[in-house]
């Protein structure tokens, strides 16, 4: 599996989040505590919005994150108020740049931890459901990228929660037709540059870990001695596959089968359920 982080809030150097915490994403690439694999060295990616209203920039590479000099150079000199970071552990597809997250389409970023079980058996049927105008945009061979373009096909740009629900329902229905039990495992982050949607769901109800930070003003009250908390706006949030450190009260588990929305002014939490075709169940 993989590890990822999504940041929204006060513009900071990417390195402040990617490298500096006690159990940073870079540390997790070697020493993951909650992932299926301890080491996540099958590539990495970062995607960031350089300014409000701009399309995101993306850096992806096939090497491990812990010794990539280009990542260090960019992270120590780039500020952003909304960015993604992802470290990959392949579930069977090739280690190549086009398979590294996050994936981008226009202003949209998408990254995923999890898998579609027996993806090879249903890959063709899933891919053929992608809008023909978007099909050529699929560059790699991962289930994650197919999920992204299915969500785009099902209306991601207008209704992200509904599109992800329709994508998940279509995957489960297709897998059911092929006798595949518990086909979908996903924690997903998607952004349009202003908001972040984060989803936690699995067909078997045992989803991969996902956490969100406590409100900054509450953390300041708990830890007045932590200087960097005073530099962050009250709206700043992090969503992570596993906590970046042991600060008491900092991390809250995202509930099973739910999604959150982080946007200017705050955040909200909602139940998540796949939307299956009429008359079908997963």
TrEMBL record:
Coiled coil: none annotated. Pfam families: GATase_4 (PF13230). GO terms for molecular function: transferase activity. It comes from Streptomyces solincola. CDD domains: YafJ. PROSITE patterns: GATASE_TYPE_2. Transmembrane segments: none annotated. InterPro entries: EgtC-like, Gamma-glu_amide_hydrolase, GATase_2_dom, Ntn_hydrolases_N. Residues 2-282 form the Glutamine amidotransferase type-2 domain. Gene3D superfamilies: Glutamine Phosphoribosylpyrophosphate, subunit 1, domain 1 (3.60.20.10). Keywords: Glutamine amidotransferase, Transferase. SUPFAM superfamilies: N-terminal nucleophile aminohydrolases (Ntn hydrolases) (SSF56235). This is Class II glutamine amidotransferase.
